[in-house]
Amino acid sequence: MKRFTGLFLAAALCVSALAACASQYRHHEPLTFEEQEAQRAKVQCQEEATAMNGPGIYTSTNPLWDSYFVMCMHRLGVTDAQLKKMWQ
Length: 88
Fold this sequence. Notes:
With 88 residues, this protein is mainly alpha-helical. It has four helices and no strands. Helix 2 crosses helix 3 (63-75).
């Protein structure tokens, strides 16, 4: 009986682990044209902000990098609402 209980618990653990992993790979809705354009702008602006600021930290924790990145995104037509959604 103890062996059955142990096997049952092991199987339950495996099933729950697989379910947790599967939730990461759910199919998401395809990106809209505007979302695709915003993603392209994000890549371009990350590259530009990095090139402009030389060596250092290339994230929003660096105020110089972040201000250039946001300015670039606005220049390419990305709104503050789109920026906020992008980083969630």
